Amino acid sequence: MAEVVIKGNGGIYLIFLFSLFCLCQSLFRGADTFKRELKVELNPGLHYPPPGGDLLHVRAVGYNDTLHFLFCSQGAPTLLLVHTNSSSSTVQVNWPLFLARNTSGSLKVKPEGSILYSTAVVFSRLLEYDDVNNTADPNSELFPPYELQNFTWSHLKLSGSIALLCGADATFINGSLCFKLSVFGSEGRGQYWPHLLHSANSSQLEVWLDGLLPRASHSRFLLELQAVGGAYPLNRVDVYQSIDDEFTPSIFKVSQWVSAQNGSSDVYGFVQWKPVAYRRSNPTLEDATPCRHSEPQSQSSEEMATLSGLIRSFYSDLEPFGLNMSFGLAGDPFYNSTNFLSWTMLVGVGSPPVDSFSPLVITIMAIGLGTPLILLLLGGLWVCIRKRTVDSTTAYEPIN
Ligand SMILES: *[C@@H]1O[C@H](CO)[C@@H](O)[C@H](O)[C@H]1NC(C)=O
Ligand SMILES: *[C@@H]1O[C@H](CO)[C@@H](O)[C@H](O)[C@H]1NC(C)=O
Ligand SMILES: *[C@@H]1O[C@H](CO)[C@@H](O)[C@H](O)[C@H]1NC(C)=O
Ligand SMILES: *[C@@H]1O[C@H](CO)[C@@H](O)[C@H](O)[C@H]1NC(C)=O
Ligand SMILES: *[C@@H]1O[C@H](CO)[C@@H](O)[C@H](O)[C@H]1NC(C)=O
Ligand SMILES: *[C@@H]1O[C@H](CO)[C@@H](O)[C@H](O)[C@H]1NC(C)=O
Ligand SMILES: *[C@@H]1O[C@H](CO)[C@@H](O)[C@H](O)[C@H]1NC(C)=O
Ligand SMILES: *[C@@H]1O[C@H](CO)[C@@H](O)[C@H](O)[C@H]1NC(C)=O
Ligand SMILES: *[C@@H]1O[C@H](CO)[C@@H](O)[C@H](O)[C@H]1NC(C)=O
Ligand SMILES: *[C@@H]1O[C@H](CO)[C@@H](O)[C@H](O)[C@H]1NC(C)=O
To answer: Three-state secondary structure along the chain?
Structure first.
């Protein structure tokens, strides 16, 4: 009898845990099954690598829409996203005009009426400063910036929908600045820290600075980014509290640089990151270094069009905003400690992905919440049975 009771309770406990687990899963994560079909094309319409840098085109086709991801190193590395409401929209490049880099309209998404939204991010400059007093104040002793438009960029190395671009300039002794673009067909998580959550509507860009000989032993770095968004500029960065879990340990924030109507929470396009960079390519927790962003500032549209061939070719008028990402806080090790720095961000359209509790945390929560409840239940049951047996013994006693 006792054995049966224990077995029964074990079963109930498991069923209870399982249903709690499912409940938590559905509460914290609406399973996203949305998928896009990816088609990768290098230098569309051209049969030889163009001088000055490759143009990658990834078509991500949904049911009734297409996301065109364009990544180009004609000038400063640029990622352009164009969202259309047609699953058959195409990209057309007039190569002679595109390579001349002096007219807009040399890259078109057709039919033009199908364009719903577009956004672009340009990596314009790498800044280095000598932090002699270890205050991480970027305005202290700035060296002349590295202009990324003047770098020599490698050809794009493709592997599926992942593209690798590395570059350096003449003063970059043995070092390189690399970009890894990943376009995704469905929801998932980055393979490496900070394991950003992505959807089929966003792409991930990882940037790293490897082996550069710093100009001072107390050198720290900044990366200048500029961005444009269709109807609304990317003019604000929202910082949210995020969950600290096994995916990005010890990071409690997520930052979103968004294209949105003033005061509205509807986001058209975004750049999302966690404020953390890593000092090694195979990082441990000690290699994490915090990063900070400056407030987005309005930039010159003429300058932005000059530094990026892709921006020049697609946009005729734009309202760029720019910000500086600064790596390392006062007291953190300097760049010379590892001669490596990597940082990861997402670029996408629509609402940015929202982090949820991981299955591990949910299981811990389920056990944490479930065990006391089960104990209460068992306690109640025991009291009931006890009461019954006592009742029955008292009921039988007078007869005896
Ligand atoms: C796609 O568009 C067609 C016609 O415009 C519509 O009937 C269909 O419901 C749409 N499908 C989706 C998944 O939005
Ligand atoms: C663009 O540059 C090409 C060659 O450099 C030149 O022939 C052409 O006239 C220029 N077009 C404009 C609009 O400046
Ligand atoms: C796509 O958007 C354009 C412009 O907003 C609109 O004119 C067109 O009807 C739309 N097409 C479809 C298939 O929804
Ligand atoms: C560093 O500290 C010294 C002494 O406090 C000060 O004179 C100097 O201006 C500081 N340098 C910078 C770049 O802030
Ligand atoms: C970078 O290239 C631009 C355009 O070619 C040129 O005007 C500028 O002087 C160059 N900057 C450096 C630091 O070489
Ligand atoms: C650059 O690399 C070469 C070959 O690996 C090496 O011999 C040289 O010492 C390196 N230079 C510096 C400054 O690290
Ligand atoms: C991605 O975009 C498609 C089409 O606009 C939309 O149906 C889907 O819900 C979006 N997915 C996410 C995760 O935002
Ligand atoms: C949005 O806000 C900014 C600054 O707060 C202001 O300069 C701009 O004019 C506003 N735009 C609209 C469309 O209200
Ligand atoms: C980034 O920092 C440099 C140096 O302080 C400054 O000249 C530049 O304007 C900043 N860029 C942006 C977009 O704020
Ligand atoms: C980096 O520079 C600092 C300051 O000069 C020096 O103390 C430290 O040993 C250097 N670290 C490495 C790994 O070279």
So the answer is: CHHHHHHHHHHHHHHHHHHHHHHHHHHHCCCCCCCCEEEEEECCCCCCCCCCCCEEEEEEECCCCEEEEEEECCECCEEEEEEECCCCCEEEECHHHHHHCCCCCCEEEECHHHEEEEEEEEEEEEEEEECCCCCCCCCCCECCCEEHHHCEECCCEEECCEEEEEEECCCCCCCEEEEEEEECCCCEECCCCCCCEECCCEEEEEEEEECCCCCCCCEEEEEEEEEEECCCCEEEEEEEECCCCCCCCCCCEEEEEEEECCCCCCEEEEEEECCEEECCCCCCHHHEEEEEECCCEECCHHHHHHHEHHHHHHCCCCCCEEEEEEECCCCCCCHHHCCEEEEEEEEEECCCCCCCCCHHHHHHHHHHHHHHHHHHHHHHHHHHHHHHHHHHHHHHCCCC
